[in-house]
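Sequence in, structure out.
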Amino acid sequence: MNIQTLGVTLLLSLLPISELRGAIPYALSRGWPPALAFGLSVLGNLLVAPLFLLFLNSLHRWLYRRPWYAGIFTRLVELSRKKIEGPVNRYGYWGLLIFVAIPLPVTGAWTGVLGGWILGIKPRRVILGVSCGVVIAGILVLGAALALSPAFSFMLKRF
């Protein structure tokens, strides 16, 4: 375990392109114990929800003063809300949790927070749903990485 691996793992868990799908396999490929790879990666990814919600609100308030943004945003949000208002009110938290828990591209914490925010789910419920989804996704990614690492060990270059 070195500081460079720690930093890269944390950075990968925070980036929208990689999140847990990049952080956990990276840490494991560097020889980290599975519990440590899981813990650090999930911890980093858990930081996304509250920080991104704070950023989204600030950015939105700033951009909403621009007429072009206000018009586009209002139309998009109203269209989205009309289409799924019923299901979101019924399944908002659970739908968000399941969406984030599926470790596929564009289904992570970043997209979950953005979707919850656009759909008007209360921030606490967004953070809770995304956080639970991140933990489940972490378990799934860790399991897949441990199961598949022998098959891909020839590709992993140790530094």
